[in-house]
Amino acid sequence: MPRRPATADPLPAALAAPALVSGAPPAGYHLQFASDNTAGVCPEALAAFAQANTGFAASYGNDDATHTVCDRLREVFEADAEVFFVFNGTAANSTALAALCQSYQAVVCSDTAHVHTDECGAPEFFSGGSKLLTVPARQGKLTTAGLTEAIERRSDIHYPRARAVTLTQSTEQGTLYQRGEISGLARVAHAHGMKVHMDGARFANAVASLGCAPADITWRAGVDVLCLGGTKMGLPVGEAILFFDRQLGADFAYRAKQAGQLASKMRFVSSPWLAMLEGGTWLRHAGHANAMAHRLAEKVAALPGAELLLPPEANGVFVSLPEAAIARLRAAGWAFYTFIGGGARFMCSWATTPEAVDHLAHDIGAALAAG
Amino acid sequence: MPRRPATADPLPAALAAPALVSGAPPAGYHLQFASDNTAGVCPEALAAFAQANTGFAASYGNDDATHTVCDRLREVFEADAEVFFVFNGTAANSTALAALCQSYQAVVCSDTAHVHTDECGAPEFFSGGSKLLTVPARQGKLTTAGLTEAIERRSDIHYPRARAVTLTQSTEQGTLYQRGEISGLARVAHAHGMKVHMDGARFANAVASLGCAPADITWRAGVDVLCLGGTKMGLPVGEAILFFDRQLGADFAYRAKQAGQLASKMRFVSSPWLAMLEGGTWLRHAGHANAMAHRLAEKVAALPGAELLLPPEANGVFVSLPEAAIARLRAAGWAFYTFIGGGARFMCSWATTPEAVDHLAHDIGAALAAG
Amino acid sequence: MPRRPATADPLPAALAAPALVSGAPPAGYHLQFASDNTAGVCPEALAAFAQANTGFAASYGNDDATHTVCDRLREVFEADAEVFFVFNGTAANSTALAALCQSYQAVVCSDTAHVHTDECGAPEFFSGGSKLLTVPARQGKLTTAGLTEAIERRSDIHYPRARAVTLTQSTEQGTLYQRGEISGLARVAHAHGMKVHMDGARFANAVASLGCAPADITWRAGVDVLCLGGTKMGLPVGEAILFFDRQLGADFAYRAKQAGQLASKMRFVSSPWLAMLEGGTWLRHAGHANAMAHRLAEKVAALPGAELLLPPEANGVFVSLPEAAIARLRAAGWAFYTFIGGGARFMCSWATTPEAVDHLAHDIGAALAAG
Amino acid sequence: MPRRPATADPLPAALAAPALVSGAPPAGYHLQFASDNTAGVCPEALAAFAQANTGFAASYGNDDATHTVCDRLREVFEADAEVFFVFNGTAANSTALAALCQSYQAVVCSDTAHVHTDECGAPEFFSGGSKLLTVPARQGKLTTAGLTEAIERRSDIHYPRARAVTLTQSTEQGTLYQRGEISGLARVAHAHGMKVHMDGARFANAVASLGCAPADITWRAGVDVLCLGGTKMGLPVGEAILFFDRQLGADFAYRAKQAGQLASKMRFVSSPWLAMLEGGTWLRHAGHANAMAHRLAEKVAALPGAELLLPPEANGVFVSLPEAAIARLRAAGWAFYTFIGGGARFMCSWATTPEAVDHLAHDIGAALAAG
Questions:
Q1: What share of chain D is helix, strand, coil (3-state, %, to 5)?
Q2: pLDDT above 80: residue C12
Q3: Count: domains in chain D
Q4: Any residues with CB less than 8 A from the CB of B250 and at least 6 apart, and which?
């Protein structure tokens, strides 16, 4: 497997600093803000996973559970979408974009887009060479001006024509696209014969934060395809892809199969989704993660020497800290990335506790105080 | 998701025929012989999955559990192999072959090889165009004569040069390669500067049947890369790739990431493996599946009108049946494929019970008797 | 460059045997039947090439000459086709097929198709993994029965769905598809939502032999895309691609550019075409090549011990000869292939002379007589 | 073919302005500064092309002429390089880079590199997804600081590792890399296990300008692979690729074949090269083009309102002109690009005459004077 040195910020082997919380800290305690994927599986998903393990079921998505989940997603999104499940976010984004673009066409994205900065060229690989045309992000977001510039940058055959645009909701910088921003970008894209893709690895956090209907910030705002994140929500594995324009997903089953993204025992990928969608569990967990991020942001904002890079609108907090403070925090065992968003990034999840947030805030304060 | 009609043999929506077994039959009872992937997760794997859900863990395979499983696999195979986990068998085979071949080179395989007949062009996709050179299988196996012919078929630049050979162990026809057959094929391949890949989707069944050390039919016999099946063994998702020649796997972490095959919450893919490897659980389950297949084969062989196509050496039974009998069996609710191996294919798994085998055998007999 | 050993049949370094013809034989005399591409550039094409070298011209196909040639091709084919020029036949076939298929779809072809046997995996490469589904050829041709079998072979997502069929006219075995055969195959293909591609590397020979209008055996018979061979006709480099269904070629300019197939000084690729199309020069040369093949066939048919494998309908003659005779012919300096079409292949071109044909026939007779 | 609107700067259909030169201007007179590929074939190349048209020759590069040209190139470069010919520059760069990189690795280039800005994603296509990591150019050149930053930007598996660097000599901005600059960049690349690729579309202009041995600014300075431009030098079609590290080119013949880059009548691609290399013809023509560029630069520099963006070191002149002047020049019929290098680009070729340079300079002056 990838050797530890292969990670940008080596994660601490041992867990140093004493815990403030009563009782022993959970395993990997200090890793919890490194990403929302260091958390485990939420109880509801785990129970559904276990319950799915009864008897025999048709494979490759032909089981009843999978069909039920697809129908449920169509209800939640109020749309007769073509729904597919793939294994992870990189695959979801890349296969979906490949369904929108030919190899000689391009995808417009922000220069902070995960597809551009953290997928090791997967979009280029799955599409057979589609180029990503980057636009400087503003608060982590694409702007209509930037999108328009990228589209009109060139019009000759020596430069790939933009065929799709991808938005990340919530963004890699912890911000949110308002419904109007999405429809504004979609209008520009559609006017140029382009399709709109949304990287929704943290879509649940966006819905929970905006308090809108999922449809409002997707197809009603002009999104053609949504990659809906499951793992960061609390699932063990598996993302959903919703083609609101069914035509775009017509042959996607074959594409997913060829791309090594069709699970044989699909019920174990799909069933946990059902539990998340029941009674808004997915939004409750996402809302909790968002709340933890706000709690952390408030405490950090009050610390002299710390500066919030952006107002936290979802489950991530980006803070500008002196190098010395960063070093002390790491020495205290805390794991976090600094190469994303230009500061120290602290992510909250369904599993984050107020105590842990307060502990981290306390240690940040201590690290700053040590001057 | 793929619509039901998308499967070659439509699986029965409802489950007809009354069960012979006492008590209600488990869900999907009649689907159990359709494939070894209609079974669920074995108890040991499920327990390990749940136990892995404690606290927080480093993502992308940097967690301790994953490192432990990799070490354990190295022990089981008595080799310092580079170990990686991917999501399914198609991805395992295709990314591994892509690591052995350039797009302008070729892979030799039998004309019944899963990579050629059931992966929707995935090997060609992941390699960027490597051609599969097929050789007629004998009892589901490649022969040295066939391999040699394929290698020497052409030597000009208008035809791709063979760079790898792939063997399936156990084969798609339920047969096994003896150690000597593997080393014989490997000798031919290596003599031509080729690498040897093994599709081990059912490798456990082979080891259990041959009663040999895993090393004996892999690296000791000349296999360079093994794709070790987990799902058919009883896992929910996830296959292992072992590069016995570490050099071949040097950069594989990047390839897997780009190919959308790197799990963020890797512990849930890897931990269940540990339970399987503890105390030979994987081989006990595989041995049970093999035993069930033998039980079925014996009973079927005794039926007038039924003919075993090949001696069952692993967990699959291939029977030649009259069309009318096939129709009656399906009417009775049984699901099975007929386009693989030229007859009716019945697969057994860790979850198959003697009662179910007897029930199926009884129904086959009845279907035949009905003339 | 490819080392000589890299060719299947090593071509003789020196040119042995004395010439029967008066005067010194032209350079490479004994190579002339090895392929129709060992011939040079016909006088008309060479003159046009030189005449194109006046002053300055817009590059990348924006020059007037290129536009004129495209219009002329539209006239010759009586169709408002989208026309493009690429550098060679492998590129023409592969980029055209890639325009018809997605990576997870398949192309049906005969097992003797050049795209399958002599392009080193180019179709798989340019399409990103499309599989070629082969069908046994009958007299070098696809049959509707074979095409139907390939299409209906499988209908599940584990097997690529056939999206295109490719016919070679004239075939790799020197035979021809009659208009009715083409429309019959096209009807089957279109009925299954497939597109029809024609590999016309030797299309001119077919038209000259059938004496029909180019349209009769292309779009009027259901062909959607034709790759029209220029090199074998007598050009130095460059093939034309005609999309009779303009929609299929809508974005092809970008595909060709990305595929490294857009000539900057396009006028030198396109202008010679104009000379070929003037006054039917292309058909006159093709007719001559066909006549030479018939002359050779008649003489060979009369030789005891030689057997024509197929009736020569275009410019190739395929003869079954004893190994000893083949060896003697090679010793006499003659170069020819034996791994295509199962016998000795002798190709005629615009440059083949009756004397050379008679000389070869004489040497074949002598080789056979030597017993 | 690509419709005229498909070019960034529509080229004037008609040729306006009266010629200053005596006699009628050559065809396309006003297109001559648009690019060095609007010129035709130089006399020496045309003669060689015609002389190559004698008798029959082995195809696919097995002819004697091709082997002779390869040997001659080895002499000129004083290196036992593996030499191949492909059809155009996009193909040369892309196939060469694909030979250096796997799909999950990256290529470092300047943000003005032709491979990044003008090849429609060809490098990504041929490599199957390799990402181009751009670095801001300084005077059109990569700097060791920029290269180092790109290499060390990230070291985790979510970002492709840099495996090659590409330099353009002479650059897209008409500047030159000094020998020391190349060896400095190569030292950094090699220290990181990377290979050095040179895009030599205008390599001849660089050698002519620097007056050095071709080896001095290639393998002696650490270049591993050179794509040597033929078309801009005065050939009709065809570029050479020299692998100074033979190992890197070991299998390239197969790659070129699969990529649709192997000419059947290779002699017509290779023979003209021989004429260019005889007696330094290639450098004489390149030197003339450079001289014309200097002549133009001197005259333009003297014009009030015009500003040279960079000192012209090869055959291109980049001038900053007011929009109004640009419009007047175009109205006068002159074709030139403005989206390359941030100003008006005027390219000179082997065919550019002093009179034409003076005519253009005069019209630029007039356009500026008109205020």
A1: 45, 15, 45
A2: no
A3: 2
A4: B82
Query: Could you tell me if D184 lies within 8 Å of chain B, comparing CB atoms?
Result: no
Q: Would you say the C-alpha torsion B192, B195, B196, B201 has a positive or negative sign? A: negative
Structural domain includes residue D261: yes
Hey, is C85 helix, strand or coil? Answer: strand
CATH number at residue B206: 3.40.640.10
Quick check: B104 contacting C, CB < 8 Å? Answer: yes
- Is residue D3 one of the residues assigned to a domain? no
C264 touches chain A (CB under 8 A): no
Chain B partners within 8 Å of C129 (Cβ) = 121-122, 124-126, 128-129
* Overall average pLDDT of the A243-264 stretch: 97
Residue C167 at interface with chain D, using a CB cutoff of 8 Å: no
For C286-310, the pLDDT digits (tens) are 999 999 999 999 999 999 999 999 9
- Give residues with Cβ within 8 angstroms of A211, minimum separation 6: none
A152-to-A159, A168, D8, D56, D172 alpha-carbon distances in Å: 11, 22, 11, 51, 22
Looking at the fold, whether A182 and A289 belong to one and the same domain comes out as: no
- Residue C7 in any domain: the answer is no
User: Which chain A residues are closer than 8 Å to C193 by Cβ?
Assistant: none
Do the beta carbons of residue A86 and residue A261 sit within 8 Å? yes
Mean pLDDT lowest for which of B5-19, B337-351, D274-288?
B5-19
Amino acid at C203: F
D291 and D181: one domain? no
Q: What is the mean pLDDT of residues D224-243?
A: 98
Is the residue at D162 inside a domain?
A: yes
Tell me the percentage of chain B whose pLDDT exceeds 70.
93
DSSP characters over B308-357: ESS---SSEEEEE--HHHHHHHHHTT---BSSSTTSEEEE--TT--HHHH
Alpha-carbon gap, residue B304 to D156, rounded angstroms: 63
pTM above 0.80, yes or no: yes
Scanning A139-232, the segments in alpha helix (DSSP H) are: 144-152, 179-191, 203-210
From C38, C120, C268, residue closest to D258, measured CB to CB: C120
Eight-class DSSP state of B229: -
> Are B37 and B350 in contact, with CB atoms under 8 Å apart?
no
- Percentage of chain B beyond pLDDT 90 is 91
- Residue where a domain terminates, one of B246, B279, B312: B279
Listed by number, the residues of chain A in 267-296 with a beta carbon closer than 8 Å to a beta carbon of chain D are: none
Kindly report, residue by residue over B62-116, the tens digit of the pLDDT: 999 999 999 999 999 999 999 999 999 999 999 999 999 999 999 999 999 999 9
- Range of lowest pLDDT (A242-246, B307-311, D167-171): B307-311
Name chain A contacts of B261, Cβ cutoff 8 Å.
Answer: 87-88, 91, 260
Confidence band of A5 (pLDDT split at 50, 70, 90): very low
**Domain end call among D224, D255, D279:** D279
CB B177 within 8 A of CB B313: no
Reading the block at residue B201, the tokens are 């989707």
Segments forming the whole domain that contains residue B258: 43-279
- 3-state SS of C287-354 is HHHHHHHHHHHHHHHCCCCCEECCCCCCCEEEEECCHHHHHHHHHCCCCCECCCCCCEEEECCCCCCH
* Bond prior to B170 in cis (omega within 30° of 0): yes
Sequence letter at residue A297: A
Q: How many helices (H) and strands (E) does chain A have?
A: 13, 10
The string of pLDDT tens digits covering residues A39-79 is 999 999 999 999 999 999 999 999 999 999 999 999 999 99
Contact call for C254 and A60, based on CB within 8 A: no
- Pick from A238, A272, A236: which is nearest to A256 by CA? A238
Q: What is the ipTM of this complex?
A: 0.94
D39, HSE (Cβ side, Cα atoms, 13 Å) = 25
